[in-house]
Amino acid sequence: KTGLLLLALLPAAPRAALAWSQIGHNAVAAIAEANLTEKTRTAVEDCLGGHSIIYYAMWADNYRRAPEYRYTARWHAARVDEECRHVARDGGDVVTAVTQSAAALGNGQYKKLPADTVALHIKLLVHLVGDLHCPVHVDYPGEKNSFFNLRLNGYKTTYHTVWDNNVPNARKWSYTEWAQQLNRPARDGIAEITAGTPADWFRQTALDCRVIYDWARPGLNLERDEYTNFMNQAVPLAESQIKKAGYRLAKLLNDIFDP
After folding, report:
1. Taking the CB of residue 63, how many other CB atoms lie within 10 A of it?
2. C-alpha closest to that of 165 among 238, 75, 59, 217
3. 139 φ, ψ to 5°?
4. 3-state helix vs strand vs coil in the chain, percent to 5
5. pLDDT digits over 31-64, tens only?
6. What's the pTM?
């Protein structure tokens, strides 16, 4: 079939669900980094001990089970109602965490905080803004749940893992290739993309991404043409979400460090 993506037919073996995988989160951070002002980039790297934000793109996943950060374990997804509006939950969620970290640093407040606290909020923002845009990190009401089982070319996995792992890796690109191909600020309408609040962005994610539950169902076996056709729908959606996440992360950091 013409126009089909040239995708590997055998998916990676299933593994723990981590939104966007390393490739996707690195791509979000790389797009954001390319859109930081020089003042912001310098300030952020000073706060991160000289490291780029890409260095910490997976930090919040890697440390979510560490005893001192276990309280953040549920901050990677959020609920919505029937109208796709955010519904806050006890213990926090991704919308609340992004909103609170941005507020904690904004209006010059970061200058009054301990250095390790500032670094923590930056690390959380770098990762959680990516999670805010992941289709399977929206908890819809009713039966839409991404943890159902299916098969990819004979491999048993979950739909959640397909989005967290297989979709971001489908093109076999490095994160730098993802960022180079997606970051087109001259024509992307960044001001429109970055308008609004994290709650607004999450609602848009919920509205745009609920279609993924029309593309797969429990017990489905995605093989050959079915797998390729699925990826031809899923990958462009992932690209759009990763691009938005990168631009919005840059907007939050620029608003904090170079208002």
Report:
1. 17
2. 238
3. -95, 105
4. 55, 5, 35
5. 999 999 999 999 999 999 999 999 999 999 999 9
6. 0.91
